[in-house]
Known about the structure:
Layout: H1 7-17, H2 22-30, E1 40-43, E2 51-54, H3 59-66, E3 72-76, E4 90-94, H4 97-107, E5 115-118, H5 124-133, E6 138-142, H6 145-157, E7 163-166, E8 179-184, E9 188-189, H7 195-199, E10 201-212, E11 217-225, E12 231-238, H8 254-262, H9 273-277, H10 282-288, E13 293-298, E14 304-310, E15 315-322, E16 325-331, H11 336-349, E17 358-363, E18 366-371
Parallel strand pairs: 5-6, 5-8, 6-7, 8-10, 9-10
Antiparallel strand pairs: 1-2, 1-3, 3-4, 10-11, 11-12, 12-17, 13-14, 14-15, 15-16, 17-18
Amino acid sequence: MPGPTSHVEHTAEIRAVSRAGREVLAAFERVDRGWFVPRRMWCSPRGRLPQPVDLLTDPELWRRCVYGDTVVVTQFDDGATHWPEVGRVATSSASQPRLVVDMLERLRLRPGTAVLEIGAGTGYNAALLAELTGAERVTTVELDPALAEIAAANLARTGHPVHLVRGDGTLGCPDRAPFDRVVATVAAVGDGLPYAWVEQTRPGGLILTPWGNAYDNGVLLELTVRPDGTASGPVVGGVAFMQLRGQRVFTGHAADFAELADAGDPRHSAVPPGEVAFGEGVFGIGLRMPEVCCEVSYTGERDYEVLLYDAGSTSAAVADVRDGVVEVRESGPRALWAEVEAAHGWWVGQGRPGLHRFGVTVTPEGQCVWLDRESNPL
């Protein structure tokens, strides 16, 4: 696993590949990621499944994980899984450094900017925010009491006395509002973009948040708050973040649904499975089937399976691709593969739009997704 093994090397690598401005890179240089990563954590070197890593027993691997451009998992299953066991759902992490830097750059922070962060986690991102705008101007909210305690200790030890609130991030922090910026380090799901974030942001302020659904998690939204109490803006990138705890989609039972799908009668597919499972169309297709989970598993160098399942209706479909031949099976009250074929047809009919052509508007009444312009809602 080649890569940097110190904060100095890490900073030099980020400087070489990032387009971030001088202020963001200087803040990154002042805050050592290793200050916020625990001795024991999980990481995925070389793209493998997460494995337990201990600073004391394998310090070189620990340093390569911490100072590499990779996600470091610090909690599984809301703390129910204890190191060295690997849990089912990662529920806290130190995000990929290059993505952290990119999001900080998008916030366009200046000294004195009032920032609300949703999801303190280890406290690392809050420390970077404090370096850019001043610790007294940063409010970070963390739902998990154990994580909040860890973040508070890390921030105090490193000299970043931000205002940390233990509470539900979807409610924001009305006592500290209004804010100039809201940044979420967890993803909102489906129609769950909290209006409280809009309500607590000054007109002209920005909300930067990951967003996705069961089918595709997800994208990064940059919303501008308007004087009329609404917020609107485009998808600015593709990201994958852990989801807000109260909005998580049904996961972890793919094997059961694959077995259910296998009981169906085989048929051919009208669309290439790859176009509905990965590539630029996945986000648009997922907007038509937001409650359906889509998972891909590789069965060979070029062979793979695409599994669709809807827990609410116990419906499932699987497309098996072997040697270029596709076989589909589906079961349950919903014909999920037929639905995804229809969603694919809609996406093709729209000109095969990539994710950057989409945007979202949030109002007190709810939210609306649009294509190319706000006057063209889906």
